[in-house]
Amino acid sequence: MNTQTYRHRFSVILNYLGIILMLIIFYLVKLQVLKAAFLLLEILPLFIIIFSFRNAFIKTGIWKMTHAPGKQLDEREMQVILHATNISYSLFAIVVLIVIYLFLLCGFGQIDAVLAISILYIAHILPASILLWNERNHSRDKE
Q1: Rounded CA gap, 22 and 50, in Å?
Q2: Which SS3 state, helix, strand or coil, does residue 96 take?
Q3: Cβ within 8 Å of residue 118, ≥6 positions away
Q4: What is the C-alpha to C-alpha distance for residues 48 and 71, in angstroms, rounded to an integer?
Q5: Residues contacting 79, CB < 8 A, separation 6+
Q6: Each residue's pLDDT tens digit, 98-140
Q7: How far is it, in rounded angstroms, from Cα 86 to Cα 109?
Q8: pLDDT of residue 135
Q9: Left, alpha or beta for 32 (phi > 0: left; psi -120 to 50: alpha)?
């Protein structure tokens, strides 16, 4: 693997860590472990998410590829995207079920907007993440 591949994989990891950090800060404030002023710290994970999204998905062109209409893709690209989408939907279903059960078992109440938006964001980046993680040669890289 080349350094570009490692850099893109690191950006994918940073993106997910940014989401997790944002949720941790939000729920620590919501559960009154931290004071409401600590919500200002949400700027840091948002910056991490935006920066890593740009590096992992936009610069590589994978975001555009996974969100392109089928008629703009060749047969190989369609098969690769279909495979990544199948894997991501399976993972996504498991993650969402775990989150729902955790909320029920821990008594957190209803899933709020921040978690719902995070889950929706994950649904959109997961196929691109899987593609990026498994891709050996990033010929689409625009750097």
Answers
A1: 12
A2: helix
A3: 19, 22, 23
A4: 34
A5: none
A6: 999 998 898 887 889 999 999 999 999 999 999 998 876 444 4
A7: 31
A8: 74
A9: left
Q: What is the dihedral of CA 97, 119, 115, 99, to 10 degrees?
A: 10
CA pseudo-torsion sign 1, 64, 52, 82:
negative
C-alpha span between 17 and 49 (Å, rounded): 8
CA pair distance 43, 26, nearest whole angstrom? 11
* Tokens 């690209």, residue located: 77
The encoded tokens of residue 113 equal 């907007």
What are the tokens at 107? 């008594």
Q: Find out whether 115 and 25 touch, Cβ atoms under 8 Å.
A: no
Residue 96, C-beta contacts closer than 8 angstroms, at least 6 positions apart: 119
* 76 has pLDDT over 70: yes
Paired tokens of 110: 């209803």
Length of the chain: 143
In this prediction, residue 94 has a pLDDT band, given cuts at 50, 70 and 90, of very high
